[in-house]
């Protein structure tokens, strides 16, 4: 009698129980991966003027710095050091630049 019960459990109950557990864990993994991929997304602010020096940023020599999930552009490394001292001040300058872009210079 115990042998039949044991065989019944092995062949019919345990496989379904473990399969449900595996699906549950797999689903949790996929969900977590989706959350992490969006949480780690970094936005490029795309500022064209250095917020510290006020210079037009040369695309060939620019340096970038990531702060709170956003990438900011600078004309040189020393400007990043100044930005780190008071990020809010320079972020306001960048936002002002983006809201009031300079008109294109005609030749």
Number of domains: 2
Portion of residues in beta strands equals 5-15%
Order of helices and strands: HEEEHH
Helix content percent band: 55-70%
Total of DSSP H or I helical runs spanning 4+ residues: 3
Shape descriptor: rod-shaped
- The level-1 CATH class of the largest domain: Mainly Beta
| CATH structural architecture of the largest domain | Roll
Q: N-to-C terminal Cα separation, in Å? A: 98 Å
Low-pLDDT runs of 5+ residues are 20-37
The largest sheet has its strands arranged as 1-3-2
How would you briefly describe this protein structure?
Helices cover 56% and strands 11% of the residues.
Q: Can you put this structure into words, describing what you see?
A:
This protein is mainly alpha-helical and 107 residues long. The chain folds into 2 domains: 1-41; 43-99, Roll (Ribosomal Protein L24e, Chain: T), CATH 2.30.170. The chain has 3 helices and 3 strands, in the order αβββαα. The chain has helices at residues 2-39, 77-85, 87-99; strands at residues 43-44, 63-67, 70-74. The protein has a 3-stranded mixed beta sheet with strand order 1-3-2. A hairpin with a 2-residue loop joins strand 2 and strand 3. The chain is rod-shaped and about 85 Å long. The relative contact order is 0.10.
């Amino acid at each position: 009698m115990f042998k039949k019960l044991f065989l019944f459990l092995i062949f019919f109950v345990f496989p379904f129980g473990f399969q449900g557990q595996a699906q549950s864990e797999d689903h949790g993994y996929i969900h977590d991966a989706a959350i992490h991929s969006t949480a780690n997304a970094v936005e490029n602010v795309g500022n064209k003027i250095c917020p510290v020096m006020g210079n037009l940023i040369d695309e060939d020599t620019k340096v970038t710095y990531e702060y709170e999930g956003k990438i900011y552009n600078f004309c040189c490394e020393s400007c990043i050091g100044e930005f780190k001292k008071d990020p809010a001040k320079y972020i306001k300058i960048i936002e002002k630049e983006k809201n009031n872009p300079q008109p294109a210079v005609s030749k």
